[in-house]
Amino acid sequence: MGQPVNLGIVGCGAISAQYLQTIDRLPQVNLVAVADLDLDRAREAVRPYAGVEVLSVPDLMADARIDTVLNLTIPAAHAEIALQAIAAGKHVYCEKPLAATGADARRVLEAAAEAGVRVGCAPDTVLGTGTQTARVAIDDGLIGRPVAATATMLTPGHERWHPNPDFYYVPGGGPLLDMGPYYISSLVTLLGPVATVIGAAGRTRAKRTIGKGPRQGEEIPVLVDTHVTGVLVHESGALSTLVMSFDAVATKAPNIEVHGELGSLVVPDPNHFDGTVLLTRLGEKDAAPLPVSAGYEEAGRGVGLIDFAFGREPRAGGTLGIHVLDIMESLLASAKSGRSVDVESTCERPAPVALGNSAAAG
Fold this sequence. Notes:
Blueprint: E1 5-10, H1 16-23, E2 29-35, H2 39-45, E3 53-55, H3 57-62, E4 68-71, H4 75-87, E5 91-94, H5 102-115, E6 119-121, H6 129-139, E7 146-154, H7 174-191, E8 194-202, E9 207-209, E10 219-221, E11 227-234, E12 239-245, E13 256-260, E14 263-267, E15 278-281, E16 288-289, E17 296-297, H8 306-309, H9 318-337, E18 341-342, E19 356-357
Helix pairs in contact: 4-5, 5-9, 6-7, 7-9
């Protein structure tokens, strides 16, 4: 079992409910307290969970019982909260992205290294059976040498359903920074780190109209590109084509496909933990489902915390998180300059996850 993580959560917004449900099922994690600028919201978030205290952020950081902080604040506050936790001698696990900018993310990792604490970063969906089963298929040579991949996320825009979608359309938002971490983390897990990117981007309109909620009909400005596409050149030589869009109506393209000399894989939605992996072998017409062979079963957001319980570098870790952020920033820089851009960071391909239930993982 290792040593249970004694956890404090900062930020009790909508995403916290998914984390709380997972943490409640993990014997490796002991939730001590939560904090939020809105203490009533914090109390409501943990009302179903007996014994969890509600503290101010300074009191949570000072609490000697807590060894790890789960940072579920808005992206603009990720670096500030992470640095506070590190200064208090605590490990940190952040919702994606690790920070709002690569420069801030580097400050977090440098501070953690100096303090001797570990940093983890969502998404941990890559630890589920979907991406991990696909990884085993690649590592076992079922598609031969990997040559290319495609990753596609197309939607007409979150303003159609989100009552307050403003942050999706200001700097730090857009389809790439919103959904790209799921897709790029999966691509790096499957094919390894990225060396160079070539990007292009655009936007269809200057305003969006809110479609639901009390602000329905209100127009909001669009200050970022809403369609981003590019090629990721992996260190292995494989080429991944990425399309992230808030401008399209629909697509029949798989979320992710990986192509090799001997076969092609359809990989499940990287925003989910599970799903069926399909393999088409060279010379065969139809795709066949692969049996689940790796990853955490019945996983949910927060399973990345398990690695902290065993004292190891998190597989959903800070070095992967900053590499993914660098890839996204490099894509946007390439789109702006019209030139290829070298990715500043690199990372080790995260270690695989053996097949097993997350509640019993070791």
